[in-house]
Amino acid sequence: MQILNYTPEHEAFRKRLRAFIAREVTPNVAQWEKDGIEPRDIWQKMGRGGFLCTDLDPAYGGLGGDFLYSIIVTEELSYSFHTGLAAGLHSDVVVPYISAFGNDAQRKKYLPGCISGDIITAIAMTEPGAGSDLAGMSTTAQQEGDEVVINGSKTFISNGINADLVIVAAKDTAVENPYQALSLYIVETGTPGFERGRHLDKMGWRSQDTAELFFSRCRIPIANRLGEKGQGFLMLMQKLQQERLVCAVGAVTAAERIVEWVIDYCKNTTVCGRPLSKPQANQFALVEMATDVKLGRAFMEKLVADHMEGHEIIIETSMAKYWTTEMARRVADRAMDLVGNEATLEKYPITRAWRDVRVMSIFAGTNEVMKGIAAKFMGL
Ligand SMILES: Cc1cc2nc3c(=O)[nH]c(=O)nc-3n(C[C@H](O)[C@H](O)[C@H](O)COP(=O)(O)OP(=O)(O)OC[C@H]3O[C@@H](n4cnc5c(N)ncnc54)[C@H](O)[C@@H]3O)c2cc1C
Prior knowledge:
It is built from twelve helices and ten strands. By secondary structure, the chain is of the alpha+beta class. Bound molecules: flavin-adenine dinucleotide. The site of flavin-adenine dinucleotide has 22 residues, from β1, β3 and α12.
């Protein structure tokens, strides 16, 4: 079943990226996982290879490709059993705020560096007291002349250590309605008053640098506001759909890779004189896991096609984010049980994959929040 129409150009891009990952990423993953971060130069190599921000206009140095190129990047990174290199977050979540809502000057200043990998980006919404509840943010942004002064703190920010540019959601305290008080600002990380806090020691996505960020009278030019004042919440709502879809693509591909790996393991591992793939209980488990990923792929690809055609798919995207990430967890869990002892050894990619998929139901909007959104839009 083929839902998405990949052209020979897409396939050539995938082949080139797969070779790049095998050469530049896979041999280094174990070290990056230990370091808790990836070196900046892998971003530049990705950029030079044409693998970042593939949708952006060639005028800025981009490929001008459709969303399928983004899907290929997320799939190939996920397929490699590696989640650390947050290219999808950079290319398909953060940079689109600049390309969609930025003015000419902002686009010219930042997009070429985002494409080349010289500028690594992050988005800072979450705060110690405000995760799911974006309206509960307390980071403030007050205009003083032609500058804006930001105060507050953010936490769990992906690319927080490597980032050169952070899109920060902050509110104007003079506006009472929390949904109208929020604006988005581009903060360059060299700005006085910006500081990085702890580099968080996570159980999964270990090679992705997730950090606390602090803003203490951090002054930025008013020209660094993205879009209109007070439109922050609307901009986030517009873009979060794509973030959740990319998350579903990553979850489905991770689950597929786990199933492929564990089938191979079961076929090639003998217990009591016969392959692990022969007992009927194991066969049923493997068939159920394979069915899960096929259902996930069909649903996800249909939504990618709808998204590319500009359809409103808030309900379905929320469903897909929660269902595919739970499915990936289910599949990873069963794979661990099928493998047994060996699955607990760090030498196997399944161990890392199990940790990595566990985290996916929490970020990009928790799965409970996804169900809440679906319920609201279903009129329940
Ligand atoms: C690895 C990782 C990377 C991240 N990267 C980023 C990033 O780059 N930028 C960023 O801004 N944030 C990032 N986050 C933060 C992430 O988006 C938040 O963790 C997420 O929004 C949930 O917030 P919370 O953990 O504070 O949970 P809370 O909002 O405190 O929720 C706690 C519990 O209550 C439930 N709950 C909350 N509200 C509702 C509701 N309305 N209905 C039903 N249940 C509810 C939740 O589902 C959860 O079970 C990242 C998190 C992780 C783990």
